[in-house]
Amino acid sequence: VTKAIENGFSKLIFNCAGLNYVSSTGIGSFTAFLKAVKPRGGDLVLLEIQPKVYEVFQLLGFSQFFTIKDNLNEAVEFFGSESVEKGSQVFPKIFTCPICSKRLRATRAGRFRCSECKTILAIDNSGQVFLG
């Protein structure tokens, strides 16, 4: 994540659907990422937080500190992305991996793995690239 921020990514979305537990260290990491992107005009959104994990955020007072959304569409809307109609000329998309800077090409929206560093990347219908 730090490399992605260093490479200019300032709008971060974390899908927390698989997160069953979060410690104070985990919350500290999210806080550090948020503090790194805010001065660059960015923000951080947490998605699909499970009820027990959300309860920890509430108990520690961080539920007001972080932006929490139910799904990816809400997170993208939060960042003010305009929706792109299917069939528009977004693809093929040429982009660089946010981790290793390898030039990549995607022919459609979906999840992909960088051929160089093996990082999992997601590309939405509007052509935006996300980690994970």
Break the fold down into its secondary structure elements and pairings.
Layout: H1 2-6, E1 11-15, H2 24-37, E2 43-47, H3 51-59, E3 67-69, H4 72-78, E4 93-96, E5 103-106, E6 110-113, E7 120-123, E8 129-131
Parallel strand pairs: 1-2, 2-3
Antiparallel strand pairs: 4-5, 6-7, 7-8
CATH domain fold name of the largest domain: Transcription Regulator spoIIAA
Q: What is the mean predicted local confidence, pLDDT?
A: 87
The CATH superfamily label of the largest domain reads STAS domain
Please work out how many helical segments DSSP would assign.
4
Helix content: 25-40%
* Major beta sheet summary: 3 strands, parallel
Main β-sheet, spatial strand arrangement? 1-2-3
The assigned CATH architecture of the largest domain is 2-Layer Sandwich
**Order of secondary-structure elements:** HEHEHEHEEEEE
Distance between the termini: 10 Å
Radius of gyration: 15 Å
Query: What is the molecular shape?
Result: globular
Count of the domains:
2
**Which CATH top level class of the largest domain fits?**
Alpha Beta
Residues in β-strands, percent? 15-25%
Q: Which consecutive residue ranges, at least 5 long each, have pLDDT under 50?
A: 82-87
Structural class based on helices, strands and sheet pairing: alpha/beta
Q: Got a strand count?
A: 8
